[in-house]
């Protein structure tokens, strides 16, 4: 059997300044031109479109949109398309950085040592990006890298940090055997903030993530520090505070606008959270809403 040739790709082929700014991002339509290779830099790759195969030594893995890889220094691999047809191309985003650069970035930010495990992987790591968060960061990095504009270098460093955070969270969730909640939970929070007056149920919110109510409750508290009900109550009371400060609307109307038809319950909850009744809160901001007193209940 002929010996397999594995080419070394050097970061000096991709980075403008190895010692100072060593980040490279591309969006590549895979072909058969690139041979199996290893490299002296860290590579994070994301399959964005199409299907194909990822070759790692003697192993061949089918890949499709949503497959995410972390390829450490020295690990040999190559992507191959499943078809040569132009409308079925295998599109892969790649973010490359030197280990020295990645280490420097993590040392510069508080809590960066938590991401150090990403640099310590000694084998190729494979994940599924179930909710598209990683794809979003790869796309942002590619846009920033492709256009010379003010803040480009800072944006690339910040984007790579966000991508590393995303990957570590996916790694932890994968090890725990549960889907990563980050983007799915962000969608739930966006729903709550955008439609706070709606009577949401925990069952409905859990359904947005495709998980059970108990697991959702646990993940929500871990993500926000509050139960879903208490989180929604705080959003509603914050909005009520804004309306009390900035409008002359009657307190009863504000109660209904933020989702509470029971004015007594609203008044009690408002005082529990703010330490004041709605009337007292409005009066304390009388310098902003001087004419509001005559419109209160």
Question: Which labels suit this protein?
Answer:
five-stranded antiparallel sheet; Arc Repressor Mutant, subunit A; disordered C terminus; 297 residues; single chain; transcription; elongated; 2 domains
Question: How would you sum up this structure, described in words?
Answer:
InterPro entries: AraC-bd (IPR003313), Homeodomain-like_sf (IPR009057), HTH_AraC (IPR018060), RmlC-like_jellyroll (IPR014710), RmlC_Cupin_sf (IPR011051), Tscrpt_reg_AraC-type_HTH (IPR020449). It holds the Pfam family HTH_18. This is HTH araC/xylS-type domain-containing protein. By secondary structure, the protein is α+β, with helices and mostly antiparallel strands. The chain folds into two domains: 7-176, Jelly Rolls (Sandwich); 181-297, Homeodomain-like (Arc Repressor Mutant, subunit A), CATH 1.10.10.60. It is 44% helix and 18% strand. The protein has eleven helices and ten strands. A five-stranded antiparallel β-sheet has the order 2-9-4-7-10. Strands 6-5-8 form a three-stranded antiparallel β-sheet, with no helix packed on it. Strand 5 (51-56) and strand 6 (59-64) form a beta hairpin. Helix 6 (202-209) packs across helix 7 (213-224). It is elongated. The model is unreliable at 287-295 (pLDDT under 50).
Strand order of the largest sheet: 2-9-4-7-10
State mean pLDDT (0 to 100 scale).
Answer: 85
Can you identify the CATH class of the largest domain? Mainly Beta
Number of domains: 2
* Low-confidence residue ranges: 287-295
Q: What gyration radius follows from the Cα positions, in whole Å?
A: 26 Å
Question: What would you call the shape?
Answer: elongated
Main beta-sheet strand count, sense and barrel state: 5 strands, antiparallel
Order of helices and strands: EEEEEEEEEHHEHHHHHHHHH
- Give the termini distance in whole angstroms: 90 Å
The second-level CATH architecture of the largest domain is Sandwich
Characterize the quaternary organization of these chains: single chain
How many β-strands, per DSSP? Answer: 10
CATH topology of the largest domain: Jelly Rolls
GO molecular function: DNA-binding transcription factor activity; sequence-specific DNA binding
Domain HTH araC/xylS-type: 186-284
Keywords: DNA-binding, Transcription, Transcription regulation
Protein name: HTH araC/xylS-type domain-containing protein
């Amino acid at each position: 059997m002929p010996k397999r040739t594995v080419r070394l790709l050097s970061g000096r082929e991709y980075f403008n300044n190895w010692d100072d700014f060593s980040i490279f991002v591309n969006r590549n339509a895979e072909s058969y031109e690139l041979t199996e290779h290893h490299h002296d830099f860290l590579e994070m790759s994301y399959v964005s479109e199409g299907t194909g195969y990822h070759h790692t030594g003697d192993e061949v893995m089918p890949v499709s949109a949503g497959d995410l890889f972390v390829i450490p220094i020295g690990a040999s691999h190559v992507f191959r398309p499943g078809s040569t047809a132009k409308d079925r191309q295998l599109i892969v985003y790649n973010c490359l950085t030197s280990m020295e650069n990645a280490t420097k970035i993590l040392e510069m930010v508080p809590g960066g040592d938590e991401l150090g495990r990403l640099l310590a992987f000694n084998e190729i790591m494979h994940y599924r990006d179930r909710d598209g968060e990683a794809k979003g960061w790869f796309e942002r990095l590619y846009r920033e890298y492709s256009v010379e504009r003010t803040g480009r270098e800072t944006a690339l460093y910040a984007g790579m940090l966000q991508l590393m955070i995303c990957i570590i969270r996916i790694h932890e969730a994968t090890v725990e055997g549960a889907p990563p909640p980050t983007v799915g939970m962000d969608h739930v929070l966006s729903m709550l903030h955008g439609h706070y007056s709606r009577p949401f149920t925990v069952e409905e919110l859990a359904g947005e993530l495709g998980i059970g109510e108990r697991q959702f409750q646990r993940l929500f508290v871990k993500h926000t520090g509050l139960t879903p009900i208490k989180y929604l109550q705080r959003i509603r009371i914050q909005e009520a505070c804004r309306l009390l400060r900035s409008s002359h609307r009657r307190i009863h109307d504000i109660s209904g606008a933020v989702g509470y038809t029971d004015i007594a319950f609203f008044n009690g909850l408002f005082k529990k959270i703010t330490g004041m009744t709605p009337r007292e809160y409005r009066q304390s901001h009388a310098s902003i809403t001087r004419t509001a007193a005559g419109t209160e209940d």
